[in-house]
Design a protein that fits this description.
alpha/beta; 5-stranded parallel sheet; 5 strands
């Protein structure tokens, strides 16, 4: 039996985390939650998720900063990261990719698009 893939959901909004969990409950992934960039770094290093969905606008450490730090660390540098944010402006998208994210989606989340991207990265 293959191991269940783990997805780390990172957002300072409990509502968004709940919405992402509802979208993902239709698929056989284990969801892990973090409500800040710092918590995301700790959980990513200890739990080694297969994919991270990362908000950009969070207190103390932005998603961009968290992704840059994930890319610096040996254990987490290869984990795919999809930024999910309300910030869809070109410079923010560019900043996301410069920080090391693999993909960039804007809120409100289109569940079909999100699931298709997750399948692309997790190969299911």
């Amino acid at each position: 039996m293959k191991e269940t893939k783990k997805i780390l959901l990172v957002d300072d909004s409990k509502t968004v985390l709940l919405m992402e969990q509802m979208i993902l409950k239709k698929v056989p992934y284990q969801t892990l939650l973090a409500s800040s960039g710092a918590e995301a770094l700790l959980k990513a290093e200890s739990l080694l998720p297969d994919l991270i969905l990362m908000d950009v606008v969070m207190p103390n450490m932005t998603g961009f900063e968290a992704v840059r730090e994930l890319r610096r660390r040996e254990a987490t540098k290869a984990i795919p990261v999809i930024m999910i944010t309300t910030r869809g402006e070109g410079e923010n998208v560019a900043a996301g990719f410069e920080s090391g994210c693999n993909d960039y989606l804007t809120k409100p989340i289109d569940s079909a698009v999100l699931l298709a991207k997750i399948r692309d990265y997790l190969g299911d």
